[in-house]
Write a structure and sequence with these properties.
The protein is mostly beta strands. It is built from eight helices and 48 strands. The strands form twelve sheets. The protein has a five-stranded mixed β-sheet with strand order 2-8-7-4-5. The longest helix is centred in the N-terminal third of the chain and has 13 residues. The protein starts with a helix and ends with a helix.
């Protein structure tokens, strides 16, 4: 008998002529609160007394009238009822959703808190339906405010920088169960036991519960050889310390090394006098600075023949120049009968104007219309022998040609030990090389194992008769990639990453790193290893392309794919000339909500309106937990297969279905929630269909005596 009834119920959806076995109209249409739940298992006794308790609740309703609203209350021990809603901009509560209530101490040594939600008609104030929820009063496990982590990127600081007030220490932190009315304070404990605030100025005084920052320590006083950095979680109302953590920083008395401009290369040996006169001359330069002080900047200048210095920098959005990089300067006529241009870079203190270091270089001035290669340079410091042998070596080059004939072209070669030359250009669509630009060449291994250098050559030649107008060469030493460990640490304060954040591309993982004995011409790359073995870059945009040897930062991981329950982040130290990996380290972070043992949950699922007119639109609203994807389907066949299915939906959200006019009786909607391991949780909801309201009848046309007479004549 039960199977026959089930068959009739399903077929009644498809065949309008069949009678629908629905609930009586007065019950099917009755307004109801279909769910009232909480993820909390206990109300903390201390938080109740301090009026800081916050309890998450979820609810769902059916057949809600337009004039009805929801009211959230607490029934006290003496029978009184108090409203426990938090202030909100919109007084209208959604028919289903999640929120937070703020309970009061229930009184009379009550051992539980009674919550109630009522569906109230705003016109009559009648209660249409209500539900209650009871939670015990006790000690909430794991809900105490706590500073979970507090770390520093360095455990030492120079005494000289402390004395100069230029010391900066990157720190990271994470706080659990932080109350609403609290903040974080970063302090230094001095030798006499007192504490001073070491926070740098910031626009927002409110510190996030987890993040990265920098503190500015001061001399601790006395003959101290170390000091403590402390973070405190404080209550802003009482200034009480809720929790704290300390770090010990050792003071290094080694004299600070002097600032040095290690590299200042001019990428051209000459410049056209006509370009100088026309103010169109552009000369590439590269630089590298070591031990750069705080508040220091670089200035690029030209020294004229009369001793004056003029700034030859081009406009740029950021006035602070990175400690290493490449750029272009714009020299002018030096004056008099000068045959060369003098360029210099100075490292200066932006506050006092004092000069820490200076480096200079010169290039000749070319007269007339003779074709010339005025620049052929590279930012590479060497070529790796193993990369040359494996044909993976790539050397960046830059060039500039003046007075180029119409039939001239450029060719990039490598001169071998026996004097022969091989072409080292990479394939390109256009065989014509521009007169100035940048690119990459692919050198080969030398002919003899004992050779210690490679020679690159650029020639300007006539394509019609092979006449060579000009040529220039670059020599690079051959080095062997050092072996050993350089990355001494690569870590994160993140205990896990949310699956939903990975899916939405909003996941951010703080990382800290440290590299020692770092070779020149190297950089750090932050990557993620996906489940299928592919590697993707997870760095966020940054102004400076060269990553410092130690510091704090943030990566942006993506879904790893497959049924992975964790993500793998990788830090690599690479050679910028050969792109060879010198060292690497990995960290693994679990994905919250993706474990096989945590099935997806459906916290709420509702349909409105219910009942609904045939041919109308139905709004479905849901909330899920531990899910990575959801789908909603309209089920309307004997095999319960989806007649219409929507995928790629938000984990918590809503969607609209439009019902065909031929459907009647009841329709069933199904919500399926899946986690990363493929586990499914399914919930169905039935919507009763009613006849749409009949259109109003048109009034009969009015008649006049004349019309009546004509009609009877």
């Amino acid at each position: 008998m039960r199977k026959v009834l089930m068959f009739v119920l399903i077929v009644s959806v498809l065949l309008p002529g069949w009678p629908a076995l629905a609930a009586p109209p007065e019950q099917a249409n009755r307004p109801a609160i279909t769910a009232f739940t909480s993820t909390a298992t206990v109300v903390d006794r201390t938080q109740l007394a301090q009026r800081t308790a916050r309890i998450p609740v979820s609810w769902a309703t059916a057949n809600r009238p337009n004039t009805a609203n929801l009211v959230f209350e607490q029934v006290l021990a003496d029978g009184r009822v108090v409203n426990v809603e938090l202030p909100r901009d919109n007084p209208w509560v959604a028919s289903s959703g999640s929120g937070v209530v703020a309970p009061f101490p229930p009184g009379d040594s009550a051992t539980s808190v009674q919550f109630r939600v009522r569906l109230v008609d705003l016109l009559t104030q009648n209660t249409l339906d209500q539900r209650e929820l009871s939670l015990p009063v006790g000690e909430a496990p794991g809900d105490k405010p706590a500073v979970r982590t507090f770390t520093a990127a360095s455990s030492t600081v120079s005494r000289a920088t402390l004395e100069a007030r230029t010391a900066r220490i990157p720190v990271s932190w994470a706080v659990d169960n932080r109350p609403n009315n609290s903040n974080l304070v970063f302090e230094e404990v001095l030798a006499d036991g007192s504490a001073v605030n070491v926070e740098l100025p910031r626009q927002n005084p409110f510190v996030a519960s987890a993040g990265n920052g920098v503190v500015a320590p001061v001399p601790p006083g006395g003959s101290a050889t170390s000091f403590k950095i402390r973070v405190r979680l404080i209550d802003l109302a009482t200034l009480n310390t809720l929790d704290q953590k300390e770090l010990t920083i050792t003071i290094d008395d080694t004299p600070a090394p002097s600032p040095t401009i290690r590299v200042f290369n001019i990428g051209a040996s000459s410049v056209s006098s006509q370009a100088l006169q026309n103010r169109t001359a552009r000369v590439p330069v590269s630089w590298a600075v070591e031990n750069r002080p705080e508040n220091a900047n670089l200035v690029f200048e030209q020294v004229l023949t009369d001793g004056r210095a003029v700034n030859v920098e081009l406009p740029r959005p950021n006035p602070i120049i990175p400690s290493s990089g490449n750029g272009v300067v714009a020299p002018i006529p030096p004056g008099g009968s000068a045959t060369e241009v003098s360029l210099r870079v100075r490292l200066i203190d932006t506050r006092s104007g004092n000069v820490y270091a200076t480096a200079e270089g010169k290039l000749s001035i070319v007269e007339g219309n003779t074709p010339a290669i005025v620049q052929f340079s590279t930012t590479a410091q060497s070529a790796d022998r193993q990369a040359l042998i494996s044909r993976t070596a790539r050397i960046p080059v830059a060039w500039e040609v003046i007075n180029r004939p119409n039939t001239g072209n450029l060719v990039f070669e490598q001169v071998l030990e026996d004097g022969t030359a091989v072409n080292v250009e990479l394939p390109r669509d256009n065989p014509y090389v521009a007169s100035s630009g940048t690119g990459v060449v692919a050198p080969v291994a030398p002919q003899k194992p004992e050779t210690t250098t490679i020679t690159l050559r650029l020639r300007l030649f006539d394509v019609a008769n092979s006449t060579v107008y000009a040529e220039r060469q670059i020599s690079l030493p051959i080095t062997t990639t050092p072996t050993g460990s350089f990355i001494t640490s690569f870590s994160t304060t993140a205990a896990s990453v949310e699956q939903a954040a990975l899916q939405n591309r909003t996941a951010r993982i703080p990382v800290a790193w440290n590299v020692t004995n770092r070779p020149q011409n190297t950089n750090l790359v932050f990557e993620q290893i996906l489940a299928d073995g592919r590697v993707v870059n997870v760095e966020l945009p940054r102004n400076v392309p060269i990553v410092p040897s130690s510091g704090l930062g943030v990566t942006a991981p993506i879904p790893p794919g497959g049924s992975a329950t964790s993500i793998r982040l990788q830090l690599r130290l690479i050679n910028l000339s050969t792109f060879a990996t010198l060292d690497s380290k990995e960290i693994t972070i679990p994905i919250a909500g993706a474990q096989t043992g945590e099935p997806p949950k459906i916290a709420a699922f509702s349909a409105a309106p219910n009942p609904a007119p045939r041919g109308s639109t139905i709004t479905l609203t849901w909330e899920t937990q531990n899910a990575t994807r959801v789908s909603v389907s309209l089920v309307s066949s004997l095999l319960a297969a989806p007649a219409e299915e929507k995928t790629g939906l938000s984990l918590t959200g809503s969607t609209i279905f439009t019902l065909p006019m031929e459907m009647s009786g009841q329709v069933t909607f199904a919500l399926s929630a899946f986690n990363a391991a493929g586990q499914e949780t399914r919930q169905e909801i039935i919507v009763s269909l009613v006849e749409p309201p009949a259109p109003p009848e048109e009034p009969p046309a009015e008649t006049t005596p004349e019309a009546t007479a004509e009609g009877t004549g």
